[in-house]
Amino acid sequence: MKNVTALLIVLAMVSVGTFATVTVDYMVNTSTIQGCTDSTHQIQICGSEVGPEGVDHWYNFFLTWGDDSPLATNIGGDYWKLSIEYPDSMIGWRMAYKIRYKSLDDDGFTWENYPPGNRMYVLPASDTTLAVAYPDNEYNPPYTPSDSVDIFVRVNMVAYEDNFDLLSIVGHYPMCDPAWSPGSIPLTQEGTSDYWSTTIRIPQGVIDTVDQIDPLGGHPGTLMYRFAIGNDWSNTENLNGKYWDGNENRIIVLHQGLKDTTLAWKYWNDIPPAGFTTEDTTDITFYTDMTKAIANKGFEIGDTLLVRLGYFNSSTSVLTDTLVRQSGTQNYFVTVNDVPVIFGEPLYYQYYLVKRGVEQREVYFNFDYTGDVASEAERRAYVPTSATETIQDIVDSKVDARRAPIFRNNELLSQDVTLTIECDLRPAIYQLLAGSTLEGLQGTQSITPAMIQENPDTVFALGLYINGPLSNNAEGTWASWGGTLAADTNRVMYDDGTHGDAVAGDTIYTLIYHLSPDSGHTVGQEFKFGIGGSDNESGYGLNHIENIDDTNPTFTLHTQWGSINPNFYNAWNYDTQSPVLTAIDDDNVVIRNYKLNQNYPNPFNPTTQISFEMPERSIVRLEVYNILGQKVRTLVSNELHAGLHTCEWNGLNDAGQRLSAGVYVYQLKAGDFTQTKKMLLLK
Questions:
Q1: Tell me, what's the pLDDT at 15?
Q2: CB 21 within 8 A of CB 128
Q3: What's the pTM value of the predicted model, to 2 decimals?
């Protein structure tokens, strides 16, 4: 029925030589995206034509949710526009859209984290310009709106080796700051990064009459500037002749109609940091087990599996190779020879799926990451130390850094599916009992240990809700967190023996949806949970992504609260789905020394747990050796945060082969610390 209706709409649009249209201008301001300029980024508007109130079509005639959706055009400064002509037959329809952006150096777009979900509006009867949208709904550009044209400038000081306290901008233009006075207009360091920034404010009157002004000998509209260290002229940039013959300054060319803008950032004196240099190389064998990805409908035998390595300047370039399937198995491997690395430093890499000519990145988040660059946490990391390395991403785990890759399936369901969603809420309960607070990031409902002590039924009284594209029968939108979500009967979950709930009061909440390919429902779905309707499961951008098994007309999706942030929920083991009785509350327990603990159980078969403690962030290697001193398995090779860490060994070597019974030695290296212990593998 959906395809027939879509065809009728298309026919109605083209049945006459001309047809009435309504033009919608989508407006985006990218000043809040760090480093985004018209020459370095692309802005894309994605979305759907949902339908009249009460009717959910989710057509994709003009906008889509993929790479084929149209790009916006930069119209000056930080402003971008996309104009779409809709047929007047769609007047009154609900329209959904979101913003994506990417650097020209990135291999994929980044979705904005717009808190309510999709941006929505109703198509009016006349041409309209939508309100300016700031990606992520951040209405805090780096400049303050005023009656001037604000030019945001940034400089990267990574190549400047000496210490300094004051960095400023100097320059000249009639009636404008900055003045020729080092130190008078200081730049501010952006956190602890190498970036410093400030704003030049040009009076609107100057912009309006810029064609009438002829400053500095025949160069109308040219603003000169450069960066200076200290409050005198002894240490300023000198770019003589690079931008202007016979002049050492940088320039900005002004023109009438110029809007608030962000300049592409510069290196001090245009000197970039030294490129990647090393004398270390290694041959790396990547092993993956695709059993889980196949089972959850994200991968098929015959799909192409790629590995890319060298992100974030961790090698000379980003290398790509294709993994090969081991005959008769669901294991894939490839050896990449002579990879330039720096021993002891992380190598960042990622797996990619190519299905029917479309490339897709794996669903992965490094829960052990402790750095400040968000995009690094989305890549896998491994610390090489020798000329031959084996990376085994085969662990059947939801949290282990070496877990097997999985992929979201974006294809339509093959049939109608009655979906039962179950959420085990016990991780929230145990984390509260361990002394943690569940912060309400959106909505007002935070939950504290004191609330649980006063009323143990607090969580149950508040109730559990599902939000995101899967919610409300997979309509594709996010409800507003807080009271709106808490009042939504289509997003509330049940633990009272109704609505598919198997056992009343067992803290496993349930909800049933009916999905159909005719409604545009796909196998892969995204969602998030909230207690009391607030966004208190985890931080921004950490959402559940799961595939629906559409082999049968019914499917139960088993989920656990907080599995998207297992390091916070350290009172719960997501692999065993049980509480961790020895969970450490990092706020209350201080680890003062490195320590490698005895494995448990010991002796063991088939698996054992090895835990270790670290007082500070360190690069860690945990390895297993046989009695001859030969390394048989690398369990950890990564940079980890301070605290208690636990990993599991399943008795397999780096090639995935079962080892014989006997005594094995496991060794922890963290910083300058080394400790070794023995364990016994039984038959």
A1: 46
A2: no
A3: 0.62
